[in-house]
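Quick one, tokens below:
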């Protein structure tokens, strides 16, 4: 492609990001004005949430830009626009579902308005994980839109199930800590969602070779990646936080520094896992 054609894709992606911003603004308009909160009140929680949105959509669009070309630039650009709008709407719809099913018992919009950074981190992590899943499900050849939508939905369900399962095995109420504005809890769960989103992106990626094969490959890769990620996370957390435990660092100390570090380790582990195992 020529430089002008490349710039056209960049401009189209920016338009989609702007549309996503406007839709998010509309969703929360009855509770707060995002631009005012960020520009005038320096609301970090909303800034983090929007940062997640602006990272997530390009991640989702990546597979469209790098995918095979038909040889006709205008045709490619048309379908980029069509699929880009589909991905944008999927991302926004999934964020609404995740708000209801992942961070339960919390009015997210009100929490963001009040400056709850933990909720901002959770929303950002959820958006980025969803963007990664969308990137994988819309990559590869064959199957068309239906298979992409099915594997996107499966990836989202797996993400929600993973978060539910993780909260169940915790020895404390993680959602209650997030509701209280505990940034350490938000960092931990957000990092886990992004890490698992990386694993799921690889699990749903690739050429479509039939429903039976595709579903089996997805389930096998997702379960294998989840098990390896969980085991390695538990082992490595002991090496990097050798003199304490999660409950102490989250509930008593609210140690955001520790969980900034461990979140990056989980994301790094996920990248290694998908490169080597999934």
């Amino acid at each position: 492609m020529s430089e002008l054609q490349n710039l056209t894709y960049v401009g189209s992606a920016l338009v989609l990001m702007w549309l996503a911003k406007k839709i998010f603004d509309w969703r929360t308009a009855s509770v707060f004005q995002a631009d005012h909160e960020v520009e005038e009140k320096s609301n970090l929680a909303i800034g983090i949430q929007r940062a997640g949105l602006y990272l997530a959509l390009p991640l989702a669009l990546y597979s469209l830009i790098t995918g095979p070309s038909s040889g006709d630039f205008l045709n490619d650009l048309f379908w980029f626009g069509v699929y880009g709008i589909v991905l944008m709407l999927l991302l926004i719809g999934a964020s609404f579902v995740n708000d209801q099913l992942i961070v339960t018992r919390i009015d997210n919009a009100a929490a963001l308005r009040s400056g709850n950074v933990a909720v901002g981190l959770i929303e950002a992590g959820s958006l980025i994980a969803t963007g990664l899943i969308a990137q994988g499900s819309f990559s590869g050849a064959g199957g068309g839109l239906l298979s992409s939508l099915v594997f996107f939905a499966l990836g989202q369900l797996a993400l929600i199930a993973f978060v539910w399962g993780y909260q169940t095995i915790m020895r404390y109420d993680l959602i209650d800590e997030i509701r209280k504005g505990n940034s350490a809890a938000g960092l931990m769960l957000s990092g886990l969602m992004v890490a698992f989103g990386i694993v799921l992106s690889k699990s749903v990626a690739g050429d479509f070779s039939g429903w039976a094969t595709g579903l089996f490959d997805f389930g096998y890769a997702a379960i294998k990646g989840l098990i390896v990620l969980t085991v390695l996370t538990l082992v490595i957390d002991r090496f990097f936080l050798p003199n304490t435990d999660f409950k102490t660092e989250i509930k008593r100390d609210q140690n955001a520094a520790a969980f900034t570090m461990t979140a990056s380790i989980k994301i790094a582990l996920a990248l290694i896992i998908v490169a080597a195992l999934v």
